[in-house]
From TrEMBL:
Residue segments, region Disordered: 1-26
UniProt-recorded name of the protein: Hemin uptake protein HemP
Organism (species): Undibacterium arcticum
Biased composition (Pro residues): 1-21
Amino acid sequence: MSKSPPLAPNPPLGNPAPSRPAPLHRISSQELFQQAREVEIDHEGRIYRLRMTSLNKLILTA
């Protein structure tokens, strides 16, 4: 009885598993607002306002 050659490993199916993305930079709202209820954010020369409501929700407006 002849031996059959060993089977080659199966090639991976589809795309390889994606690498993990870098962790996001997180800033606490307390750090961002400090003692204020509203901050201005300058993004590419445009000013946005981030406001904390009386219900502790955040609203971003241009």
